[in-house]
Amino acid sequence: MEDKDISSKIKFQNNWNKLKLWLVGNFYFPIKIQIMAKFMKRLAYYLAIWFKMSRNSFLVIFSRKSVLFVFLAGKIIRFVFQVLLIFFLVNGSKTLAGYDSNQTLFFFLTFVAIDSTSQFLFREVYRFRNYVVTGDFDLILVKPFNSLFRILLGGADAVDLITLPFFYLSLFYVGSLLSPSSLDVLLFILLIVVGLLISTAFHIFVISFGIITLEVDHVSMIYRDVTNMGRFPVDIYKEPVKSFLTFFIPVAIMVTLPAKALMGRVSFILVIISLIISALFLFISLKFWNFALKKYTSASS
To answer: Is 165 left (phi over 0), alpha (psi -120 to 50) or beta?
Structure first.
């Protein structure tokens, strides 16, 4: 009798396993493939839109070569003067908050890489106020694609596109002088992505305030001033400023932490915390954007 019960249980288990394999083969994988195909198609759709908008933005900039030259020259001169400032600052004291000249320069280059990349991608944010004031934002809202995507990525910056390769090469060269391990490089890349997510959240906050208050320029300048505090390691600041720049306005996670990761000074727990904070910061910014949209009043109404 017991042998018959055991045989029945084995038979039931085998049939159940076959049923699970059949369900997985006929439902799970096809559905998963359909979802992935739909996602890739949507991604290609938005990439095509971004390329078209960026091309139009580049044509406008390159049609005014004198303006392009002035902006490009100003950006390079500003970069050179900031590098010289770091050189003389650290050269006089030998170290800055325990970091030598190469390490301090790497902090600055990490800031420049993240800041310039976000400026390249999100340049349209700084034109947003005019859309709200003139009522052109109404036209954006009725377009058959996400309005937030249009405002954030509506026109890449040609000046930053020209300077970005130079900044990246400088970052790579100075970073190689620090002799990082493969793990340090992987953590650095991961935290650079985290920094860009935080920068994205900052820009979403800026345009959300622009809808509610019509003030984009002043809010964006506040953002620029706060993030400029990340040009140097946040270790130079005393409490509570250091904690404020780490947890409340995560400039330290955005800029300082990636540089520290390449130097092998970041623990896995801190990496996980930074991932959580960046995801939370982005989530709150999206919620605030949806709140701002509900408060929007058309210029024509």
So the answer is: alpha
Do residues 214 and 129 touch, judged by C-beta distance below 8 A?
yes
* Token pair of 48 as six digits: 């095509």
Q: 151 and 47, same structural domain?
A: no
**Gap between the Cα atoms of 277 and 259, Å rounded:** 18
- Tell whether the model's pLDDT for residue 31 goes beyond 60: no
Q: Could you tell me how many residues make up the chain? A: 301
Angle among Cα 114, 150, 287 to the nearest 5 degrees reads: 75
Mind listing the pLDDT tens digit for each residue in 168-204? 999 999 999 998 999 999 999 999 999 999 999 999 9
State the DSSP code for 250. Answer: -
Whether residue 96 sits in one domain with residue 56? no
Integer Cα distance of 110 and 107 in angstroms = 5
**Residue 280 pLDDT exceeds 90:** yes
Q: Give the global pTM.
A: 0.82
252 near 246, Cβ under 8 Å? yes
What are the tens digits of pLDDT across the range 85-98? 888 777 766 777 77
- Taking only Cα atoms into account, the Rg of the chain, rounded to an integer number of angstroms, comes to 25
Q: Helix H segments across 25-64?
A: 29-62
Residue 175 and residue 30 share a domain = no
Q: How many CB atoms lie within 10 A of CB 121?
A: 21
Is 150:122 a contact under the CB 8 Å cutoff?
no
Domain region containing 22 = 8-62
